[in-house]
Specification:
Structural class of chain C: mainly alpha
CATH superfamily of one domain in chain B: Immunoglobulins
Order of helices and strands of chain C: HHHHHHHHHH
Strand content of chain B: 15-25%
Largest sheet of chain B: 5 strands, antiparallel
Radius of gyration of chain B: 27 Å
Largest interface: B-C, 70 and 84 residues
Number of helices of chain B: 4
Structural class of chain B: alpha+beta
Radius of gyration of chain C: 25 Å
Number of helices of chain C: 10
Shape of chain C: flat
CATH topology of one domain in chain B: Immunoglobulin-like
Oligomer: heterotrimer
Number of strands of chain B: 8
Largest sheet of chain C: none
Helix content of chain B: 25-40%
CATH architecture of one domain in chain B: Sandwich
Chains: A mainly alpha (about 210), B alpha+beta (about 210), C mainly alpha (about 240)
CATH class of one domain in chain B: Mainly Beta
Number of strands of chain C: 0
């Protein structure tokens, strides 16, 4: 079976994340409470669904803002995702974590929204220039002396979508590589490489900014 | 989770982890929209009991099949004694066959899974040195750009994937870097008659 | 009662129990098939709900439900909707398209009557979308009432899409089927014709040439009653679709 990245065991061990430096503040420890709410929402309890939205809305917005090319779309995309979750809720089964299921749907919505930023073309594959001609993400205006947070978001926006998404899922939303593999179908070794690339990019960008 | 000494990256991660405040207005809009879609009509009317019924019947179905198999073995043994019984193997096969092809006695008759869907493993290959991520999309995976990632030979330019396809005509394309949808230069091209979008065609014969 | 009489009575009682048990097993198995179909339906709704907005989802589900009632395969409808979603087609366009797919499925089922498989219906609908008339499909079916139409219709559709005249294309497919060409041979034939056309050969010339290559390796005595003397360099004459295979 062909490995997707061709990394040897030594290279993969470098990618293995060490101990957490900063605790991740998420709602993931509330899996049990989630289960009760989801079961009620599945039966049509709109108040339970409201509680679910309240619980996950801030995380969903955080994720969408990180992933979307046009951040103005974040609220609309998050709303669309929750509506899809609502319609699909009766079919949700507990064999998958609810938050993983939600973020999978949200990721789909974000990717669709991002895709509309590009004109879909069918070009001759020999035209490799077309492949390189990936539109740059929207960047903030060129103000000087941006706050660190703005710099981080500006740098994040320049990370390619496919690396950025996995970086956000892992480092920001706290999903393990195993969980992300189940969500995306991408092998863990490839996921780790994407996170590494995003991390390297961010580090280099921010170091360049603050080196003066 | 970055390395402890990776201060800059950890600061960035902490910054990105900042949660926005809960926007109650947005929550209300979502819930209202959900309630409207619920009230909207029968097409959205969801039978909440179905998944449970599926689980309930699974065990008896297994038992029933095991019983039928045991009957076959028993009767085959009895036949050796010279007694002439009808061959329940035929009945069982016919019954199973009919179970697959029969329609349900429900208000909306459901078409069973495609009974002639024998599958053939089919390889798709895409060539590019500059692409970072290539996925296969087509009528066999809901045109979902996340469903079928392709693998690149290390250091090479060929991306590939094997997937099982049912016999007949299939339309597909390659999604490159989540950005470009490309047809296969080595396959016939087609234009979707309804959307006008281009794709590539593969016809699969029965194995 | 002697042992001689007891054995047949025991056998009869056992027989009765076996019949009951087999019928119960068959019934439960049928229910398992039913539950599998229900699960498939629920998965389908989830697949659509995850990718379509509410309005489009509702419209598509109405068409799906209509297809179910008419015992048509629903996958082509789902696939069309999700293709539209992938390419960000407007809701109205997706809705219209799935309705057109539904009409094609109906026409295909009618042309392939009386007992087409779901795969046959799907293949017929695709062939209709590519420009094959329903009547042509009906005629081909009447020539081969018991064979799978999945690959022949796919090949026929591709030939017509490549501008081979319909009568020539169906004549070729019919003849190759009569001569016992396998499905893979039909597929290879279609690919070679397409390649020739893409390199500038006229469709008629391509089809006439490539069929010579295929019939050369097929059984010399065709499987059906075909007058081989009617084969000429310009291609086969149209065979009477109503001849017995």
């Amino acid at each position: 079976m062909q490995r997707s990245t061709g990394l040897g065991p030594h290279e993969e061990s470098i990618l293995e994340p060490p101990l957490t430096a900063v605790p991740i503040v998420t709602a993931r420890s509330n899996a049990t409470a989630d289960s009760a709410l989801v079961n009620r929402a599945k039966l049509g309890d709109i108040e339970a669904f409201t509680a679910i939205v309240e619980r996950y809305h801030p995380r969903a917005v955080r994720f969408a803002r990180g992933l979307l090319r046009n951040q103005q779309d974040a609220e609309d995309v998050v709303q669309e995702a929750f509506l899809r979750v609502y319609r699909a809720l009766p079919r949700y089964e507990e064999r998958q974590r609810f938050d993983a299921w939600l973020f999978r749907i949200l990721g789909n919505c974000c990717r669709s929204a991002n895709a509309t930023q590009y004109r879909r073309e069918v070009v001759d594959v020999d035209d490799e220039v077309a492949l390189e001609r990936v539109a740059a993400p929207e960047t903030t205006d060129g103000r000087f002396e941006l706050e660190f947070g703005d710099e981080v978001r500006r740098a994040l926006a320049e990370v390619p979508d496919y690396n950025r998404e996995i970086f956000l899922l892992h480092h920001i939303e706290g999903f393990s590589y195993e969980e992300i593999e189940k969500m995306t179908g991408v092998r863990q070794s490839a996921l780790k490489m994407r996170v590494k690339r995003a991390s390297d990019f961010l580090r280099a960008k921010l170091a360049g900014v603050y080196r003066g | 989770m970055a390395e402890p000494h990776d201060e800059l990256l950890n600061r960035a991660i902490n910054e990105l982890r900042t949660l926005p405040p809960l926007d109650q207005g947005a929550v209300s809009r979502i819930v209202d929209a959900a309630a409207r879609s619920r009230d909207a009509g029968a097409a959205e009317d969801l039978d909440f009991g179905e998944p449970r019924r599926g689980r309930f019947f699974r065990l008896p179905a297994v038992i029933g099949i095991a019983v039928a198999a045991a009957i076959v073995g028993f009767v085959a043994g009895v036949q050796l004694l010279g007694a002439r019984f009808f061959d329940p193997t035929d009945s069982r096969r016919t019954a199973v066959g009919r179970a697959v092809e029969s329609t349900l006695v429900t208000p909306a008759a459901l078409v069973p899974p495609n009974v002639d869907a024998e599958l053939t493993s089919t390889q798709f290959v895409f060539k590019s040195r500059v692409a970072h991520r290539v996925t296969l999309v087509g009528d066999f995976n809901d045109w979902d750009a996340t469903a079928t990632p392709m693998t690149r030979e290390s250091g090479g330019a060929l991306w590939w994937v094997n997937i099982p396809l049912s016999a007949g005509r299939h339309v597909y394309a390659f999604m490159v870097d989540d950005t470009l949808m490309l047809t296969d230069p080595d396959a016939p091209e087609t234009k979707d008659p309804d959307f006008g979008v281009k794709g590539s065609v593969v016809i699969v014969g029965k194995p | 009662m002697s042992r001689m009489h007891r054995v047949p009575r025991l056998a009869a009682a056992t027989m009765k129990s076996l019949v009951v048990m087999v019928l119960v097993a068959a019934s439960v198995t049928r229910q398992a098939g039913a539950q599998a179909a229900v699960q498939q339906a629920t998965d389908l709704e989830t697949r659509l709900a995850q990718r379509l907005d509410a309005e489009t989802h509702a419209s598509v589900m109405k068409v799906v439900d209509s297809a179910r009632v008419q015992q048509l395969p629903v996958e082509p409808i789902v696939s069309k909707a999700l293709l539209g979603a992938t390419f960000r087609q407007p809701s109205a366009v997706i809705t219209q398209s799935v309705n057109v797919v539904f009409q094609r499925l109906v026409a295909s089922r009618d042309a392939l009557a009386p007992t087409p498989t779901p795969g046959d219906i799907r293949a017929g609908a695709e062939a209709i979308a590519l420009g094959v008339p329903s009547k042509t499909i009906r005629d081909l079916r009447s020539t081969f009432p018991d064979r799978s139409m999945v690959v022949p219709l796919a090949v026929l559709g591709e030939l017509v899409a490549n501008k081979v005249p319909v009568d020539r294309a169906v004549g070729m497919v019919r003849e190759l089927m009569r001569r016992g060409a396998s499905e893979n041979q039909l597929v290879a034939f279609s690919e070679k014709v397409r390649d020739d056309i893409s390199k500038g050969t006229s469709p008629s010339e391509a089809i006439a040439t490539r069929i010579q290559g295929l019939i050369a390796i097929l059984p010399t005595a065709p499987a059906v009653n075909v007058d081989a003397a009617n084969v000429n360099g310009a291609g086969f004459q149209n065979a009477d679709g109503r001849k017995k295979p």
